[in-house]
């Protein structure tokens, strides 16, 4: 057989013409046309100069085929195919039977691979720097690319996409951007890639069970952030359960709009409603459901808005789910602003810069043009960007107006003041000026949730994560007024439980919002804000005295029958808040009664979301309560669902159930 193969190789060598540049170019053109047709491409008329990505990808595939056919098994198969006339040999076909690394075609592949490797090893270039011109080879002029694998028109090149895919496989990082793999094997591999481990989440261990006789008072700051729910959805739709630390149960609950009773005119800017209901996962405990509903003023009564868009345009923002989605999201938001509102744009990438001076929101074309000019490149100078954004906002502020900095980033603050604690102190020093900071997160892979939370909490703002255009519609269109116009600042909740009726209790969620008992009356201690039309929900699970669900034994040195009022109240609710611009808080109080009538669909659906979040965190308090139980409760309490948010949540629980059985 060895002699026969050598004879066959010699015959091929004799029969194959010498390399011909014109014929090779023609074959390459035909190959590209076939590639376009098979891929359903609409770029058939594009000249060869625009197709360097395809050339590199095609030649890389040829190299793989060369390696396979140069083995003994490959030669045997090729021989059989030639015998039945099924082989089509290119002008350089003789190289298919030579060892890898020899011959004109493989030399060309190596040359292009070397060129591609050199281009990808160059340091990242800021979009502000000039792009050096690189003379292209005469036989195949190519479009220049930068080190990120993007051509100058901002498109992701095919060879760069494939290198990204290979790098993701090596590094164990998830592939973002929905790239199409060149084969079913590669496509399957890309679907199985795990998410990056560079993400950092701000969370604490779940709240422990408290003994009422020993610690009857619970104090915390309210939270209206929704980022955690969107991160959970992003993970589940990517085929993975989210990391437990990414799940903040209070944000899972408060993601949804609820129609709680609103305050009457002349009352406090929000109204509390307390409901006691059965615990779905433990028949021997009860749930205390605390709901706050803020006023929603008429649109014409809304004060003028001064909005500084602080946009991260660093190199890490180039993915489709980051800067491009950010531009689309802000385009949606502009339609909700009025001519008396003002918009300015500050970007940061290596250094900060103002790209749009304060402009009336009525000048939509000017604002959109400034957004469209943004490109990703360079490092992340977050501190410089924040400093300049506050400077611009200070110049825009006026009496009776609302001034807000809206930071849009993937959270990757890698230059300057990058520590979450230091950033928080910087923002805290600025909020007293009346300029608040909200944070929008974009993209996955290096999402720094800890930094985003530190910024939003210290800036008296909201943190949201935008992973789809639908989420942008929710945050920046449907709930824009609630996100940007505060009605109550430093809102604190304190519940004193009655040891005569409640043996034990635990607060579900709010781990990162815990306050000391003495902080409640201290007006210098910062807390969360409620914006116009916002609702806030907090849920306690309480164990009645004498219930078989009591988990702690009585203390030896504590009276078995503690002194308490004769009331049957489960506890007493106190709320403190400040009017915007005020420094002295006001107090709202209400008793917590053991029976409050039938729970609303809103209350029961929020309980289902509390259960969903605890399932994702692996809570020990749920017993045998399952994903199916959460689905059933959420479905039964779905109620009116105008925007489909609750239906989506039920679908996510079903998806989590399936993924948890893998």
Q: Could you list some keywords that capture this structure?
A:
6-stranded mixed beta sheet; 16 strands; 662 residues; single chain
Instruction: Give the termini distance in whole angstroms.
Output: 49 Å
Which whole number gives the mean pLDDT?
Answer: 76
Number of strands: 16
- Summarize the amount of helix as a percent range: 25-40%
Give the class from helix and strand content and strand pairing.
alpha+beta
What strand line-up does the widest sheet have?
7-6-5-8-9-10
Biggest sheet architecture? 6 strands, mixed
Per DSSP, the total helix count is 19
Low-confidence spans: 38-196
What is the CA-atom radius of gyration, in angstroms? Answer: 31 Å
The quaternary organization reads as: single chain
Overall spatial form: globular
| Fraction of residues in β-strands | 15-25%
């Amino acid at each position: 057989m060895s002699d026969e193969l050598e004879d066959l190789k010699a015959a091929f060598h004799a029969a194959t013409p010498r390399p011909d540049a014109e014929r090779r170019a023609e074959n390459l053109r035909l190959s590209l046309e076939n590639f376009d047709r098979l891929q359903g491409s609409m770029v058939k008329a594009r000249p060869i100069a625009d197709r360097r990505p395809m050339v590199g990808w095609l030649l890389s595939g040829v190299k793989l085929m060369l390696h396979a056919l140069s083995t003994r098994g490959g030669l045997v198969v090729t021989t059989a195919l030639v015998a039945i006339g099924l082989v089509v040999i290119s002008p350089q076909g003789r190289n298919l039977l030579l060892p890898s690394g020899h011959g004109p075609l493989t030399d060309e592949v190596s040359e292009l691979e070397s060129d591609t490797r050199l281009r990808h090893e160059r340091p990242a270039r800021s979009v502000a720097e000039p792009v050096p011109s690189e003379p292209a080879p005469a036989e195949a002029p190519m479009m220049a690319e930068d080190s990120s694998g993007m051509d100058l028109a901002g498109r992701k090149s095919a060879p760069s996409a494939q290198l990204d895919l290979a790098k993701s496989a090596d590094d164990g990082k998830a592939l973002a951007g929905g790239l199409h793999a060149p084969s079913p094997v590669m496509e399957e591999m890309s679907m199985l890639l795990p998410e990056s481990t560079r993400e950092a989440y701000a969370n604490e261990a779940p709240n422990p069970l408290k003994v009422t006789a020993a610690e009857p008072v619970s104090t915390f700051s309210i939270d209206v952030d929704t980022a955690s729910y969107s991160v959970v959805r992003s993970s589940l739709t990517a085929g993975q359960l989210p990391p437990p630390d990414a799940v903040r149960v209070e944000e899972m609950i408060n993601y949804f709009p609820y129609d709680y009773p609103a305050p009457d005119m002349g009352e406090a800017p929000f109204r509390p409603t307390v409901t006691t209901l059965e615990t779905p996962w433990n028949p021997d405990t009860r749930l205390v459901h605390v709901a706050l509903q803020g006023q929603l003023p008429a649109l014409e009564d809304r004060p003028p808005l001064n909005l500084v868009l602080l946009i991260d345009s660093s190199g890490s923002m180039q993915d489709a789910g980051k800067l491009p989605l950010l531009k689309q999201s802000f385009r949606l938001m502009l339609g909700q602003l009025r001519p008396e509102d003002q918009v300015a744009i500050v970007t940061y990438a290596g250094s900060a810069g103002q790209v749009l001076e304060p402009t009336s929101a009525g000048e939509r074309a000017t604002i959109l043009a400034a957004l469209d000019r943004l490109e990703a490149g360079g490092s992340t100078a977050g501190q410089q960007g924040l400093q300049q954004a506050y400077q611009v906002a200070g110049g825009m502020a006026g009496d009776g107006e609302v001034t807000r900095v809206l930071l849009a980033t993937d959270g990757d603050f890698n230059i300057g003041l990058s520590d979450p604690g230091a950033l928080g102190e910087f923002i805290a020093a600025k909020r007293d000026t009346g300029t608040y900071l909200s944070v929008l997160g974009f993209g996955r892979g290096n999402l720094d949730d800890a930094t985003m939370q530190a910024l939003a909490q210290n800036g008296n703002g909201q943190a949201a994560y935008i992973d789809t255009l639908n989420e942008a519609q929710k945050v920046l269109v449907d709930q824009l007024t609630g996100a940007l116009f505060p009605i109550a600042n430093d809102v604190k909740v304190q519940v004193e439980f009655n040891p005569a009726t409640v043996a034990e209790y635990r607060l579900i969620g709010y781990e990162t919002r815990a306050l000391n008992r003495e902080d409640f009356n201290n007006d210098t201690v910062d807390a969360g804000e409620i914006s116009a039309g916002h609702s806030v929900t907090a849920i306690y699970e309480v164990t009645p005295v004498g219930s078989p669900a009591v988990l702690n034994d009585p203390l030896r040195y504590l009276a078995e029958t503690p002194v308490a009022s004769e009331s049957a109240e489960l506890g007493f609710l106190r709320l403190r808040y400040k009017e915007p611009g005020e420094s002295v808080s006001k107090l709202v109080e209400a008793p917590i009664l053991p029976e409050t009538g039938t729970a609303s669909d809103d209350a029961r659906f929020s309980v289902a979301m509390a259960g969903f979040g605890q399932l994702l965190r692996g809570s020990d308090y749920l017993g045998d309560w399952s994903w199916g139980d959460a689905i059933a409760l959420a479905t039964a309490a779905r109620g009116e669902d105008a925007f489909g948010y609750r239906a989506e949540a039920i679908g996510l629980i079903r998806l989590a159930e399936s993924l948890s059985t893998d």
